[in-house]
Each structure stands twice: as C-alpha cells, then as structure tokens.
User: What shape does this take?
Amino acid sequence: MGIKTEILVQIPKERKHITGEHIKGIVKFQLDKETVFKSISLSFVQKSYCSWVENAHIYEKRFLSPVRHRPKIGNIYRFDGQENKVIEKIDFLNKEANENVKLSLGSYAYPFEIFIPENLPPSIKTNIGFIKYYFVLKFEKPGLFNWNKTFRTQLSIYPRVDTSVVGEPVTFKFDKTLIQQQISVTGELEKGFFNSSQERRITFAVTNNSDVTFTLKTELVSNTKYTDTDPGISDLKFEETKTVEEVVDYCTVKTPIVPDNSVANMFNILPPVTPEHLTVRHSKIISKEYKVRVTLMLPIPYANESIDIPVFIGEEVSDEEYYEEIC
Assistant: This one.
C-alpha cells in the first residue's frame, strides 16, 4: 500500500495552540492504487512520562520495616510515572461500523477541527519528564495480517490565562522586627500572571525604622512536582513524589539600597519569561507552579525575611478568531 501523506495545521493568531481554543487543519494523502480501508482516523494524543532514581539506603531509612513494596535495582530504587490518553479521535470514512470502503487511486483531503480542553496540561520537557502531544493518522486495512500505516506529527500546547482570576494587581505586606526596631514593606505586583511578551512591574513602599540598610530582591521561582504511577503500588502511602525548586536566573533583580531610618518608594521590573516556562496543572504525574519571591536582604547577623506571591504563567487569548494559512 503506497501512501504519501501530510498533516497540515493552521497557525492561530497567537502563533501558539492554547487550551480552550480549536485546532484547525487538513489531512492530505495520495494513493498509488485502488485500496480498501477498514478505517482512516486522526487521533489527538497525549503522552506523559517521568522517571527518577533514589539511593537505596536513603529511601529505606524512611520505613520502619524492610522495603518490600518496590523492587531494588542494585543500590537504587527507580520511580516512573506515566499518563497516556486519546483526547479526541476523528474517523474520516463515512461508513457503518463494520463496513469497508474502497478508495480509488488519487489524491484526498479531509479538513478537521479539534477542541483543546481547558483542563489539558501544557507541553513540557525537563530532564526528569515530559508531556507531549501528537496528531496520529492511522490507515487500517481489513484482515488480521495486513500492514497498517501510521503517521504522526507533534505540536506544543500552551495554558490559557484566566485574566478574570489573575489579571488584577496583587498586593502584599510583610514586616521585620530587629530587636526594638521595625521594617515594613508594602508592595504591589502589576498582574498575577506572566507570559512571554510582557514585563511585570513590582512596586514597594518601604518604611525603615532601623539603623540598618538593605535591598529588596525579587525572584521568579518554580516548583515542579513529579509523581510515580507504579501499577504495583496500590497503597497511596507508598506513592512517591519528587519536587524540584528552581530560580529563573534572568528574572532576579534587586532594588537600590534603602537607607537607614528612611521611607522609600521603589520598584523592580521582571522581564518576559521564555517559552519553556509554563504553569502545569491537570496532570497526574507532573505539576509546575510559579511564585514571585520578595526577600528583604539584611546584613549579617540578621536573618533575611521573604514572602512568596503565587503567579500563573500562560498565554492570553484574544476574542477575535484568526488563523493564518495552513503550514
């Protein structure tokens, strides 16, 4: 069976495929001879996986009794998480369930449109795991021993920002007591979400009723949580997770020094984030949350003081529907 095929996807206005939107495209293929098909289908598929290892001695110290719920490989334990699903499937042949269809030699084109659910986790890839999406085109012929053809193309999915929830300014306040002296910081983050095209301004009103000087450091911090889904572990108390906290280095900024016994109004500018930074939710095995961390950087011997402000990283969507040519 000779088939030449293309899965062509339209480029949306934002140039990204975002949850809550539709994906439009067209499947084209050519047959070099008359062929009977049982089905021709296009599936929108999610494949997710994570894997990590832990030193056996460290892992076994968590339990009072010997570890029997997991196999040990040498001196390590391995943990794996997996989540695969078909989001939507389209059958292109207009036929009854058990009917076969004969297609003549020639060229064929089938347009398609698939909705991306809002509760779909976005694409992500780290050194521990990934969430990927594919269009899988399958040509299936009748009979048990016929050679079926499968083609696939990968695409990236981005999370939608709910601006009604995180589109407003976020205010915060914290205090620091130094013996009998007081430092107060009141601040406002311009918006509760980040994206790849807009910077964010964070302002501070500082009252320094102390004899020390300090700066305010602003960081963007991610927490990624991985969960194993070993089918042999039915008891949730043995379910394992791994959490990785990382600071987005290029988003770290500091204010000028705040003088002692002073009042100051100042701000930091956080740059747009690069496309690999996204909030990940709605996955069984990978989640990723972000926060803006504001730290009062005090001189020795005083301890620093910090506050975390949860933020969402994703894409805003215009109400205007617009698609570029298929590519």
The chain has two domains: 3-160, 163-313. The longest strand covers residues 39-55. The CA atoms of residues 199 and 272 lie 5 Å apart.
